[in-house]
Write a structure and sequence with these properties.
27% helix; ten-stranded mixed β-sheet; Dihydrodipicolinate Reductase, domain 2; Rossmann fold; alpha/beta; six-stranded parallel β-sheet; 2 domains
């Protein structure tokens, strides 16, 4: 079986092996075991477990010297084969695929993707077997699953293994610049406290079920529409947004569960006709496991959600929206607003921007516009992203002009994270804030779902 699912999660980060728990007590040792990886050619041997996501096709556009071209795939019957790749695959297809993978252990890094309901179990069993794990987001989709994920991190640390999820949104050029500028006190000031009505941070991600990837219409599995298997939108795409709130607003800082307080959370469904469902799944009818969500011949999928929460002293709001199909010329969009005491940093990706994410800087009333502009220009000149320009939109508002070579797009971010992941794998660790912040991230999403289901 030749499958584009081979490297679904090579574009991921490993875990740090030192951290603290929510109350600040040490639960991850500061010292780590020496890495068993040296950076040698082909030493990273991948095992792809029960693949089920198109991300692999994006990652496999590139080869990596450190990754062995022979990959072992373990999957249940019915796994769909797609286009052949340059990777040499050895596949085992059968109902006992998990037991077979754990007993044979033919690689050293397990790639976990697909059905999110059973992902946590895959992670725990792989780590217990002594295997590193790269897991597609989200790792868990309910508050009941969250404690087991915490235990998996502890077990990974004890065994000297690396566990992490994929966060490609950190590699968007406009997001990276927004983060850099937010760290400049002479430009941004400090993050506002905000309120529920006017949060200090607002992020919205809009996605579409009908999607064209690399020139082909994406065929989604039927279970992708089952929130019991895929997870609701409030615990799925919001994983990226919660991660960005932490990464941008609290750079290099360790966050704990006690730093998070859910203020409000809501969820609502996207409705599908049978023809729309068939168009994106190639299934003639709704599977039996979806009938619970069908009313008046319409399938309702709780793919949308909003979380309003306090993180440390500031209020943040993140929203994930899934519609059926984008309008002509449009696609997935990202909106981000960081409100500072000197200026606001806003990313807009709408029709006016030709659906190209664009970063704006809005000076606060009373700001010294001349010195603020000088500070922005000085900052842009020293950023890793070279060739940036500043365009004045109106008095007190500027736009960052990004040259085309830096606009590599979402598909290329996978190779960027892959290269970074391999560096960390060789080092055997990440910065000390990665694991505790990941725990805080999944605590936020799963608690938000619990809140929404209980209170609305």
């Amino acid at each position: 079986m030749k499958s584009l699912y081979v490297l679904i999660m090579i574009a991921a980060f490993p875990v740090i092996l030192s951290s603290k728990n929510a109350e600040g007590a040490s639960s991850f040792e500061k010292k780590t075991k020496p890495s068993t990886f040296t950076g040698a050619k082909g030493e990273v041997k991948l095992i792809t477990l029960d693949p089920g996501h198109f991300h692999a096709a994006l990652v496999q556009k590139n080869n990596y010297v450190q990754v062995n071209p022979e990959v072992y795939v373990y999957a249940p019957k019915g796994t769909r084969a797609v286009s052949p790749t340059v990777w040499k695959e050895t596949s085992y297809i059968g109902n006992d695929y998990l037991e077979k993978m754990l007993s044979e252990k033919r690689g050293n890094v397990v790639v976990v993707s697909g059905n999110n309901r059973i992902k946590g179990d895959y992670i725990a069993k792989s780590i217990n077997a002594g295997l590193n794990v790269l897991a597609d987001k989200p790792m868990v989709i309910t508050a009941d699953q969250f404690p087991a994920l915490e235990k998996s991190f502890v077990m990974a640390q004890k065994k000297g293994l690396l566990l992490y999820d994929i966060m490609t949104e950190r590699y968007s050029v406009t997001t990276a610049i927004q983060r850099e500028l937010s760290m400049r006190a002479d430009i941004f000031g400090t993050l506002e406290i905000g309120s529920m009505e006017r949060p200090a941070v607002e992020m919205t991600s809009v996605h579409y079920f009908y999607k064209n990837v690399s020139g082909n219409t994406l065929v989604r599995p039927g279970w992708f529409f089952d929130v019991k298997q895929q997870g609701e939108g409030i615990v799925d795409v919001t994983t990226h947004l919660v991660d960005l709130v932490q990464w941008e607003c609290f750079p290099d800082q360790i966050l704990h569960k006690s730093d998070i307080q859910i203020l409000d959370a809501k969820r609502w469904p996207t409705q599908f006709s049978k023809s729309q469902f068939s168009e994106v799944t190639k299934l003639a009818d709704f599977p039996d496991y979806l009938l619970k969500d069908v009313k008046a011949d319409k399938l309702g999928v709780f793919a949308n959600g909003t979380i309003v929460y306090k993180i440390k002293n500031s209020v943040a709001k993140v929203t994930a929206i899934w519609d059926y199909k984008a309008s002509e010329g449009a696609g997935d969009t990202h909106y981000s607003m960081l409100r500072g005491t000197l200026s606001d940093l806003e990313i807009i990706q709408g029709k006016e921007q030709k659906y190209d994410p664009t970063l704006y800087i809005h000076a606060k009333v009373g700001a010294d516009l001349i010195n603020l502009e000088k500070g922005i220009l000085a900052a842009l000149a020293n950023l890793p992203q070279q060739g940036l320009a500043l365009e004045k939109v109106q008095s007190g508002t500027w736009k960052i002009v990004v040259p085309d070579p830096l606009k590599i797009g979402h598909e290329a971010h996978f190779s960027q994270v892959a290269e970074k992941y391999l560096e960390y794998l060789k080092a055997g660790k990440l910065p000390e804030w990665e694991v505790p912040n990941m725990i805080a991230k999944y605590y936020t999403t799963t608690q938000a779902l619990k809140f929404a289901q209980t209170n609305h």
